[in-house]
C-alpha cells in the first residue's frame, strides 16, 4: 500500500527502482534490501519495465491499476458517508471537539483518505471546522443534527420490534416469547456470568449521543453509556472492528474508564476481544455470523480484491488451479469471504490476527528478508 501510494503520485504512475530507494525511510526500511526482489514477489500488483541496460522501472499491473481507479471512484461517491461518520463521532464526544491526530487512529477503520485532514475536514464548514488548540489542530462540530443522533443499536431495536409486530399479525395462537439472551455460537458462560449479563441488559439504554457529563464514573450507568459509544464507533467502521489501542486514545473525549480493555471483556455478548498478537482487536459480535462479516461496504470489497492480488505467487505451485480472474462471480475476491478466508468460529479470528495484529497501515513495517527464493510470504496490512 505504501509503495502504491508513492507510485500513483508519480508522472504516468511509473517509477525507477533507483528513485524508489529514496523512499526507504518512508517505507520503514532500516536495512538495505533489493527492491526488485520485493516487487517480483507480487507479480499481480507490480510489473517491471526495462528502460535501457542500467535502468529498471516498475508500474502497477493493469488489474492493480483498474482497482486503484475503482477505489478513487468509490471514495468520491462515498464522501458523503465519510462526512456523516465524522459528524456522528463528534456528536458523541463530550466537548463536540476531537484532536485530528486522534481521529487519524480511526482513519483506516472509517475508510478516510490519507489526506483527510487537508480535504474533507475543510470542505464542509456547515458541519465542522478545524480549530487550533494548545494540543494541536482539532475538528469541532458546527451543527448538531438531531436526526443523526440515533444509534445503530436503536435502529436495530426498531427493526426488531417492527418484525415482531408483523409476526403477531400473521401468526395466531403463538406461544409467549420470553426475553432470552441469545449468546453467540461457541460462547459458554457460567451462571454468575450469565446473571451479570442479564442484569446489565436490564439497565435502561443510554444513547451515546446523550449528555453524559452527570454520569458518575464507575457507575453501571456510565458503563452502559461507554458500551453504547463503543458499539456505535464499531458500527461506523468498515469491518466492524478496530484495535483496543485506538479506543484508548479517546478516553478524554468519551470519559472511558482507565480499565477500558477489562470493561470490553466483561461484555462478551456485545463484543469479541481477540487477545492474539501484540495489540488486541475488538469486534462487534452482531455484525458477524460464524466469524464472517455479514455486510460489507464497497471499499472493503475493493480491499479484498487487492488482498487477492497480493497473494498471487510469483511461481504457482505445481498442481494448483489456474483462474482467469481474481474476483468471484459476485464481484468479491475469490479468496476471502468476510474477515477470515476459512473461518468457521470465533477462534479462527485469533489465528488470523496472529499474522495481522494491526489494520493501521501507517504503523506497519515489512521486516521479512526479500530473497528471490522466498515467494510465499504475503505482506501484512
The proportion of strand residues reads 5-15%
C-alpha termini separation: 8 Å
Over the alpha carbons, how many angstroms does the gyration radius reach? Answer: 23 Å
Largest sheet: 3 strands, antiparallel
Bulk shape = globular
By helix and strand content, what is the structural category?
alpha+beta
Helical region count?
16
Please give the number of β-strands.
Answer: 11
Widest sheet, order of strands: 1-3-2
Given as residue ranges, the uncertain stretches (5+ residues, pLDDT < 50) are 321-344, 357-381
Mean pLDDT: 81
Order of helices and strands: HEHHEEHHEHHHEEHHHEHHHEEEEHH
Helix content range: 25-40%
Task: Note down, in words, how this protein is organized.
- The longest helix has 19 residues, at 152-170.
- The strands form 4 sheets. This protein has a 3-stranded antiparallel β-sheet. Strands 4-6-5 form a 3-stranded antiparallel β-sheet. It has a 3-stranded antiparallel β-sheet with strand order 7-9-8.
- The protein is globular, with a radius of gyration of 23 Å.
- α4 (62-77) runs antiparallel to α15.
- The protein has 381 residues and is α+β, with helices and mostly antiparallel strands.
- The protein has helices at 2-8, 17-20, 35-40, 62-77, 79-92, 100-103, 107-110, 120-123, 152-170, 191-202, 220-236, 244-248, 251-254, 260-265, 298-310, 346-354, and strands spanning 14-16, 46-50, 56-60, 97-99, 128-133, 136-141, 241-243, 271-274, 281-284, 288-289, 292-293.
- The model is unreliable at 321-344 and 357-381 (pLDDT under 50).
Amino acid at each position: 500500500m505504501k509503495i502504491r501510494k508513492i507510485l500513483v503520485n508519480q508522472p504516468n504512475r511509473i517509477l525507477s527502482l533507483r528513485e524508489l530507494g529514496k523512499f526507504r525511510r518512508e517505507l520503514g526500511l532500516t536495512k538495505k534490501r533489493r527492491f526488485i526482489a520485493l516487487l517480483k514477489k507480487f507479480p499481480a500488483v507490480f510489473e517491471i519495465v526495462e528502460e535501457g541496460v542500467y535502468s529498471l522501472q516498475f508500474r502497477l499491473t493493469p488489474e492493480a491499476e483498474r482497482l486503484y481507479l475503482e477505489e478513487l471512484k468509490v471514495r468520491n461517491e462515498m464522501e458523503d458517508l465519510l462526512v456523516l461518520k465524522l459528524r456522528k463521532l463528534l456528536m458523541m464526544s463530550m466537548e463536540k471537539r476531537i484532536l485530528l491526530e486522534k481521529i487519524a487512529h480511526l482513519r483506516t477503520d472509517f475508510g478516510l483518505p490519507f489526506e483527510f485532514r487537508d480535504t474533507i475536514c475543510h470542505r464542509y464548514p456547515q458541519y465542522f471546522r478545524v480549530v487550533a488548540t494548545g494540543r494541536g489542530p482539532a475538528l469541532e462540530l458546527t451543527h448538531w443534527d438531531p436526526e443523526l443522533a440515533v444509534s445503530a443499536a436503536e435502529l436495530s431495536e426498531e427493526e426488531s420490534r417492527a418484525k415482531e409486530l408483523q409476526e403477531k399479525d400473521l401468526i395466531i395462537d403463538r406461544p409467549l416469547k420470553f426475553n432470552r439472551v441469545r449468546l453467540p455460537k461457541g460462547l459458554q458462560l457460567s451462571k454468575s456470568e450469565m446473571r451479570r449479563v442479564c442484569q446489565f441488559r436490564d439497565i435502561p439504554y443510554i444513547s451515546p449521543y446523550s449528555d453524559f457529563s452527570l454520569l458518575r464514573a464507575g457507575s453501571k450507568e456510565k458503563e452502559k453509556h461507554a458500551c453504547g459509544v463503543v458499539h456505535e464507533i464499531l458500527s461506523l467502521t468498515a469491518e466492524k472492528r478496530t484495535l483496543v489501542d485506538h479506543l484508548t486514545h479517546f478516553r478524554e473525549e468519551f470519559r472511558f474508564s482507565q480499565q477500558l480493555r477489562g470493561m470490553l471483556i466483561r461484555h462478551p455478548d456485545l463484543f469479541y476481544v481477540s487477545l492474539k498478537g501484540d495489540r488486541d482487536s475488538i469486534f462487534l459480535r452482531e455484525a458477524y455470523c460464524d466469524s464472517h462479516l455479514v455486510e460489507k461496504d464497497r471499499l472493503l470489497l475493493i480491499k479484498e480484491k487487492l488482498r487477492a492480488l497480493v497473494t498471487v505467487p510469483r511461481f504457482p505451485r505445481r498442481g494448483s488451479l489456474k483462474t482467469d480472474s481474481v474476483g468471484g462471480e459476485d464481484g468479491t475476491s475469490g479468496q476471502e469471504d468476510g474477515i477470515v478466508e476459512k473461518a468457521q468460529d470465533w477462534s479462527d479470528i485469533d489465528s488470523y490476527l496472529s499474522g495481522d495484529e494491526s489494520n493501521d497501515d501507517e504503523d506497519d513495517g515489512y521486516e521479512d528478508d526479500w530473497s528471490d527464493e522466498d515467494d510465499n510470504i504475503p505482506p501484512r496490512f
